[in-house]
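One such given next:

>
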Amino acid sequence: MNLSFRQLQTFVEVMRTGSVSEAGRTLGRTQPAISAMISGLEREIGFPLFERERRRLVPRPEAYYFMEEAEFMIKRMNQSAQILQEIGNLDKGKLKIACNPAASNYFLPRVVGDFTQDKSGIEVSLMMRSSPVVAEWIASQQYDVGFAETPEPRSTIRTEDFAFPCVCAMPEGDPLARKSVITPKDLDDKPMAVLFKEHLISVQIRKAFEDAGARLRQRFELRTFLPALQLVAQGRCYTICESLSAVSHARIFGDRSAVTFRPFSPGLFLNMSVMTPANRPASRLAQAFGARLHEEISRLVSGVDEELFSIRN
């Protein structure tokens, strides 16, 4: 059985008005068109809903019984049409996003908040996990968009890659703040907050110090840079962190920040990626959010110098 919306709409209008001609006027159709639509409906269901008396349609008991169901189906189809329109306009839908700790504290919640500002019907799941877990979630299609450290190439993940330059964070008023660029020699034997030794930035830092003949004194070993920057603000150490954490810290604390940032040489970078499942098409909503995320990341990376080094001197 294949009932059409127009058949149901015509049937309900004939029942409501009690007249083929009135139903035609309401629907903007001719009387023959209304009669043909009713006949087609009856052929589809296999039994008559009306008696034909003197060119009039007289409802049978089955018509009255079917009336409530037909009204419900029309209402449901109208609701479905509205939902489809909202989905197409990005006003309705669900979005599952995963990110690593560096992005979860400030940056990604702000992007999500801006993106959903005029989309009250959008539901968002924003989960923070380590970068390897984020990659696994994307590869297994559990999440729509991921933002974390760049994973090893794999056929199940599509990536857009970004290189975040590392900067040196020091306590406000530190003598090193007078320098325009910080080198390993400047940090020779000074107390440092460093991530766990396997982390890519930690590996690069150790090599930079070794190449410069400088001593790396690790006072604090941490999982993320958020507590490291707090220790720096308390005057306990220095740290070399990626610019995503640095910019997030600067935006959160503003003029209240007790941390000064300077460029670090040699250049160290943390590669991060926007990840999406490679083996399924992205929804319109995920595509739109991914484009917005790409735009915000590009703006952040290109504006690191102006945002971090021109404010606190």
